[in-house]
Design brief:
mainly alpha
Amino acid sequence: MLLDCDEQLFITYRQSGENGAEKLLAKWAEAEVTPHADSKILGTALSPQLFLVNEEAAMNIAFSTARKYWGRVSIELQQFFDKHGMDAKFVNDRLNAFFYTQKGKQVFFEQLFAQHTMDLERLVWLVFGKHWQVKLPVNELQTIFLYKFNNDYFVHMIYQEEALFWHWLFMKKVYSLLIHKPLEQFTFVHEIMGHFEQSSTIVCEHVDNSVYNYKNILDKCITYVDNCNLSCLAKKQLRLYQIVTHFRLSEGNYQCIKALIASFETDWRYSMYALTEKEKVLIAYILLRIAHQERDYEHVLRHGEYLLEDERLNNYAIEILLEYKDLLPNRKPTPPAIIKNYNLNYLENLYAVLLDTYVRLERYHEGLTLLKEHGLASNKKINAALAQQNFSKEQLIAIEASVQQDIALQVNNSLQHIGLSVEEWRQHYRQPDAPYFSVAQSASLHMINILKILFVTEQYELFEKLIEVYKKYLLVEDHFEKLRVFIRAYV
């Protein structure tokens, strides 16, 4: 079920390409009785009146389209269900119960309204209560989008046929809403801009400098919208999205991002929509990452200690992840482990960065305090040993045993046959093509920093045990040579 404007643009696009569709849009714009202002940042905009519909129409369009494409099972999809013990009668009975009842329609719309998107995988979860970690067979209908603007709804489909056109049209509609609708009607900035970026990636896949072009379009749109709207929450969220996007897509030049942050903080510091603590944490995290890349270690400590204090980063991480999925590395933390890649979890990375910075700035006692007070800065066994004045022989043996267990989990994801796993690790961990090479490199650098702190702060007994463990299981020659040079300088 297509809207009239979608159908006319689709036919024109197939006949004359994007240029033909743009000419049709220009023709419609000229015919408007009260023309809208159009910045032409992304070509000619559509009047939102052409594609916004009321709630009943949105429900009918979305549900009837889903029923048409997902209400009957293709041979390929049934083969998928067969593999999971679901025969054709069971599958069709469940689909009919969902797509031909008012309750099914209501559940469908509630989910679509809450999530803003519906695809085949989410629908299967709704109907069958199953979520498979495999890609379902490709369907003619890829995605349904739904967003609410006051009493109107924006519903848009992405079809497999001419998918490039449907993504182009989605971008065009979002752009049109940004420049024609009051920004205060946007209650879902992160979601709609995230989908806008996804479509841009697909549309501009073969364009040179596509990342630069997207950031350029984004900046122009936000500047235009910023100048045309009064202060509101959505305006602040749009500026935050701009900062995060520039950071995620940055290629080593951070001056633009720091300028955006400085301007943002100035503009919103005394507003009625002043920065929340979550937003301050988000900004501090970005500035920490930038400072670390630029080797500005004083600012690394300033932002890192702020994030660590009162567990700020940990407290707001889930909310930040929900809004900006790719910003924080969110592999599950492993407090018992010392052998791991410290770049894969935001908290473990924060501790590793802070510890490295304390060493670089020769603030070893602060590094020791970090190790004593936070188990994730090392691991549970080392942390427990540091908490006591005297180390027992059993504790030192337990540290080595825990390292062996870490290695077994890295090699075979199992604690069976630990000895064989350790032997395999020792043979291959220095090889760049080994699956755990990056783990060994990251863990070695972190262990070297721990050893430096222990040596300078005269924790000799634990230092000797850890260096024995390091040489036995984790030795990286150039890292170890730097430790030897460091120790000679202190002797």
